[in-house]
Amino acid sequence: xxxxxxxxxxxxxxxxxxxxxxVLSDEKLCExxxxxxxxxxxxxxxxxxxxxxxLACLYPLNSLPHIKRVRTCREKNxxxxxxxxxxxxxDLNGTDVPNGEVSLSDLFPEGKADxxxxxxxxxxxIPAYQPLTRPQFEAASxxxxxxFHENKQVTDALQGRLFNAEKRAKxxxxxxxxxxxxxxxxxxxxxPVGAVVVNPATDEIIAVGHDCRNGSNPLLHAVxxxxxxxxxxxxxxxxxxxxxxxxxxKSLESFSDDHVINVGKPLLPSKDHSSTGAIVNGLxxxxxxxxxxxxxxxxVMCSMALVHSRIRTxxxxxxxxxxxxxxxxxxxxxxDLNHHYDVFKGxxxxxxxxxxx
Amino acid sequence: xxxxxxxGTGTAAAAAAAFRPPERQEQERWMQxxxxxxxxxxxxxxxxxGCLMVYQNEILGQGRNEVNETKNATRHAEMVAIxxxxxxxxxxxxxxxxxxxxxxxxxxxxxxxxxxxxxRLLKKLLFLLNLVTDIPLVVFGCQNxxxxxxxxxxxxxxxxxxxxxxxxxxxxxxxxxxxxxxxKTFYKAENPNAPKSKVRKKQ
Lengths: 357, 203
Prior knowledge:
The structure holds two protein chains of two kinds.
Chain A: H1 2-15, E1 21-22, H2 26-29, E2 34-42, H3 48-58, E3 70-72, E4 82-88, H4 104-107, E5 122-127, H5 134-141, H6 152-158, H7 165-187, E6 194-199, E7 204-210, H8 222-233, E8 248-249, E9 279-280, E10 283-284, E11 291-296, H9 300-308, E12 313-318, E13 342-345, H10 349-356
Parallel strand pairs in A: 11-12, 12-13
Antiparallel strand pairs in A: 1-13, 2-4, 2-5, 3-4, 6-7, 6-11, 7-8, 9-10
Chain B: H1 8-18, H2 24-43, E1 50-55, E2 58-64, H3 67-70, H4 77-92, H5 96-101, E3 103-109, H6 113-121, H7 124-128, E4 136-142, E5 169-171, H8 176-189, H9 198-202
Parallel strand pairs in B: 3-4, 4-5
Antiparallel strand pairs in B: 1-2, 1-3
Helix pairs in contact in B: 2-8
């Protein structure tokens, strides 16, 4: 098994010219925020558990449950093995601390603690929040040990390892379909943007559409066209797509009997994701569980239309100047909204850039 | 009333000069009708949002939410009304950017992010001609805490989006209590067409 796996990986690198990157929320991408704190060496390690108890009463650090109170000393040639967080700088508000220099007696009000077994306090910076990604965890750990619940999918996504060669080959064929649609639309005088909706559970193409904004309706962007085509497939739909023979959908009757939908199962599981059932009376519900491949980053209108349509994942090639899935906004990660989806960018980036030039 | 023939700029400027922002009383009157359309949506099992698009004292578009009947989640009242105005422009051979520039949308609930972005996109052409007016494009009832694109969640009308049409003005708070009351009635009954939500079960 192992050698085969390795072969695949090398083949993947040589076959694909594009790199896929997740478009994560700002909180997952931001630099680690730090807080000023005081720590001290534990000279007498036998006192450690006693110190932890005392400090938990005196300076509970309730807002920092991710911080490990004690760490092993990093420098080798010292007389102590452990170090402990005493308190945050802001905990000392009101007490006079000249020039930030503190002594143990400043930190331990009379009678509350003996400060037994502690060395001279020193200044440290500790992470203000629990890290959400491995890069954040690694940066945070440089300062002070913290807990971290790693999401393997996110780590893999950030390192470009989430999709294997087989999956990437499939993704490429879907984006090629979108590019083909974009070209056909361009021949009709439209903006060269194409989109494809796929059911990832079966790899069936549900709808293929191109931009129609230069026709009778300036709001018929490729994504809006695809959303309506999916509606047609489900027995609804609004626009007359007869004028655009290269925009088509798969009707519900033509689905295999065992039409499967991934019910609210995002690629990058996280607390953000709302999961909604995909099947109402045995029928699929709008775009729930489906993936969208689109040649360029959707605008605000289209990105929000995809929230309303409950899309699962969006793969796009190139960024747009006012794009709402990474450039100007990240509507897919916006906390106040009731549905969130995963977004990856860079799929066949060069080919799609050529479309626009 | 007699715009100079010739350059598009000239006719647009003439139309802009002829346009006056509606009086408060008139706005109340239109909002009353929009509320009627919202009630119609409620009776049809749709989210009770109703709207009107008024151009020179004439209703060019009237919409209510049609998401469930079209199985298309983008069929909000505003999008339905916008399509009617576009069709009117097509039939009358009118320049749609000029028409939208002088059309006021009366809607019972603050437009969502998608609809606000759509309204911006429709103002594109005149913006390029530097003919932005201070006239409100949108007059709405209650706020939309869940999806609102005119201040509640995002502020699409005035955000810096140079490639997404023109900024526009909004006024909220017209008969807001009645609009909220309709929404409460709807959500009490729960949307029979929406998929079962795990979140909702917990509540």
